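Instructor's aside before we start: the two examples that follow are unrelated to each other. I chose them only because their records fit on one page, so don't look for a connection. First example below.
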Amino acid sequence: MKLFHSFCYRAVKTRCALGLLPRRTSGLIEFLLPGVIIILMRISWPIVLLALILVASFATMATVSLQESAIMDELAHIPAGYGYVKFLDYRLNPEHPPLVKIVSAIPLTFFNLNFPTDRTAWQDDVNGQWAAGTQFLYESGNNADQIIQWARVGPMILTLILIAFVYFWSRELLGPKWAFLPTIFTAFSPTILAHGHYVTTDIGAALGVIVALYFFVRYLTKHSRRNLIFAGLAFGFAQLLKFSAVLLIPYLLILAAIFWGISNHQNLRGGFGKLTASAWRIFRSVILVFLIGLFLIYPFYFITTLNYPPDRQLRDTDFTLSSFADGPPAPGEICAPMRCVAEFNIWMADKPLLRPMAQYMLGILMVMQRSAGGNTAYFLGEVSASGSPLYFPAVYLMKEPVPILTLIVLTLLYALYRVGRAIKRRQLNFADYSLTRLPELSMLLFIVIYGVYSITSPLNIGVRHLLPIMPLAYILIAAGLKGFAQASNRNLILGFTGLLMLWFLVSVGRAYPHYLSYFNEAIGTDNGWRYVTDSNYDWGQDLKRLKEFVDNPPAGEKVDKIAVDYFGGGSPTYYLGGKAVLWQSAKGNPKESGVRWLAVSVGFLQNAKGELHSGHMRNLEDEYRWLENYQEPYARAGKSIFIYKLD
């Protein structure tokens, strides 16, 4: 350390003598240098490496973000969050919890922004989020890019917290070295790099689930009042990030029941009273976790509904739930169970102490309603809103990097081998194993439950829906590989894992900056649109790249006008000005109107050309049949906007 201190001291003196540092600065550095050196020497190398990973991940997300326009959902989330923070009014976007939007909106309060509170979308419309977003970003004299980029800082910080949390939990389970495997996979997953910088609730769902799971498992294994409180706060934190975290309610009950069963398996022949008492203690603890979570949820909704007029909240809630569970019962009839829940929600909407929870409850009911209705999307040549059980498995296999898929297969095979060998030797003791490996069991159980829920749901919204289970899968991969390395040729396993890690990083680097459109080597990013679109490929992120093409066309070309059929949260007229002519298939060939260029989002093309699922309808003029004369696009803006030269 003395040698290091001497080297730094001489470096400061030399720079001062050369005039590179002022003498006052040199004196200050000489005074602070010993303390700084002691701090640096005491920081362990894992923390330094973790910091470098966080910096690299943040830098990647930030530079990608600067190149991208607003994606579709940001058009609703950004104005909604600003309304919560600036006006304490929750009238926009009630179908999503507030926390991500609040974090995103905080930086915006430091700018002098014009918000369209005098427009119909805010004053009269029920949940006029899309119109309010367009007006706020593009029609109120604001700098749209400034708003979008600063709003994305919050989600990027949440992503960094997720990465750090994965590391620290993995370190508890696997040690500091093996913990870096799931940490690197989380930090540089193309899906997490893509969605980690958007103002949506998807990355929040991943963070909320892993935090809630960690603290609940810690409470089960180490009962204390402190751990109970933390488990409850973590549960509430998850509910404030994504409504799909409601799935934690049955999951935590199931996990608690399993823990009770394996904890008491040797005492099943004991007194019934003791078993009942222990079961009641576990069940009561879970209920307390839920109640503590509600105590965290309530203040957020209380504050963000302070200036939401009660009569307006009642009107909006009544209108939003008018068709929920087949609508209100006829006079004299008793409502069905789910409709009774909706009626109770409507009744609460204008009650002073109850209306914060009424707004929270409204969001859950809206998610249920939307999930039942599905999501019209293109998948494997077909356009459907009915969903497919193949959707999430297929999308995951196409978009998760091949090295990760390889490691998943390897660890699954090793796990099956271990189980088979234990059964053969009659050494399999599920209860004892589960107690010692409860964190891994809890992760695996959640992946299974969440996977079954996703596969059976008609709401096929993209691989982003699987974000809550991705970090958990990465931790389990590392745990399996560590066990494999300890039981076999350690150097061989480490070398093989290192090669796959290098492959993973090279694959991610080559995909830069098109992480939303990323498809693994088996498909190819340029070809992903042929299999599935929507938020897997085309969410509106490439509009600024279309502007670059229009402003700087290829040599010998000139773009005076361009017809634009765009899907996303951007505004073609804001970025392209008078050169943009808003278009759609039904208008026919723009060439007939004197426009030589056409830009169309590939999602619109696939929805127009894909085979319709049974029961779906589409107008003939919306099928872009006239575009079949142009076999291939002249160019692409990014990956998702096809550009045609109509000569």
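Example two begins here.
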Amino acid sequence: MRIMFVGAAHEVTGSCTLIEAAGKKILVDCGMEQGIDLYENRPLPIAPADVDCILLTHAHIDHSGKIPLMTARGFKGKIYATDATVKLCEIMLLDSAHIQEQEAKWQTRKALRRGEEEVTPLYTVEDAERSLDQFRGCSYNSSYDIYEGISIRFIDAGHLLGSSSIEITLTENGVKRVLLFSGDIGNVNRPLIRDPQKPEKADIVIIESTYGTRVHPPRRDYKSQLADICQRTFDRGGTVVIPSFAVGRTQELLFLLREIKEEGLIKHHDGFPVWVDSPLSVAATNIYDGGMEEYYDEETLAIISEGRDVLKFPDLKLSVTTDESRAINFDEKPKVIISSSGMCEAGRIRHHLKHNLWKPENTVLFVGYQAEGTLGSKLIGGADEIKLFGELIHVNARIEQMDGISGHADRDMLLDWLRNLKTPPMHVFVNHGSDTVTDMFAEQITAALGFVAEAPYSGGTYDLETLACLDEGNKVKFEKTVPKTVRVSTVFERLVNAGKRLMVVIEHNRGGANKDLAKFADQIDALSNKWDR
């Protein structure tokens, strides 16, 4: 039994961990990296075709975003997740694939003008569609025996609709280990979803540390805070632009804005429009608003029992087409625009920033975590000007941030979550946090709880029986660059993985009829002769 940390090691995004036990190879999450890359991630030591299954904590792209790539490169196993996560991935992975294809087309046009090669998307919509067939929905608090010697259980992480911590029980050669992956643990007392469920047992814990060194400020009333920001902006004749994660945060904002309108908390601007400008946000809102009672908190269930809408209200406008999106900024009436992406790295929000950042009457309101190096973090950090679509935009709008609305647990909440374990775990691994935060939170766990804790690096590999470190991983930082060869190397990596997949197929045909094997060998020889340069 062993564990290898691949992604989100001394970094916040790109969650991915490999477990080898009972003759099986299992990935926990398979996420995409966002923001600055401080350490070069070690590649998976096995071909995607050799991965038996994937366990997914939740649908956010930094946890799920590379699943279609795995499928494209030969992964054929099942993907276990909660039913709500499966529904959200149906829209999120297709949206991600569409972005990959559009970005590749745009980069290809630029490349061809320079006389360079075409750019291949990381994966396609077809890849994403095929990956969706591999998902298997699970319920909270039910045990699933997925292989001999391996069972899993999902518990509510309170971070996103369907988000989970995953308890994995491994038995091999008479040795039993219970691993607990926290996933992203949610903040408490948030709209719509329940607070995180606390675990009771684990031999080894892998815990996130997004806010591992921070404590959320004293909680302000989200509703009053949002109403006040809108009131002041509307009184100036301005628009409130909210970069928001399409899934989770957008729906929380709609819940609050519905209450603000129902209670008349904004004066003299009756009927102000609220635009949700993102096809993904619109699709996610429809999922949240339909048949998700299993995942809601008591307050939300009470609203539904009264026959009231949870997320819909008068003057809510849903923008899907690009023409609808463009028209929003030609309307000078005070309004709210909610658009993705939440860190301003892509999507329609960048167009809204271009049209609104330079106007002093407007407000850009941040309501979520901003990874270091993202456009969102630069604006919060006080940037005077930014570049969008090749144009320099001066920042005259007010930049504000809502206090305490984070979807992540803070340091004290994380410690409290660990404290609920009935007996001390043998070891705690800290991941999914920025470079210094992971180490500092590991030290805090030991100081506050007495648990043995450390923050592994990408490639860090440990024996799950003895907890001996087999590989310390990559501790060398690098300044990320994008050389011209990156596209070639990415395509070559696909070729290498195709070769590994071919070897798996060959092994699967061991014992086949000699006639069929000879034909297969002839086909491989012909292909090799064609490409042997």
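Residues 481-490 have pLDDT under 50 and may be disordered.
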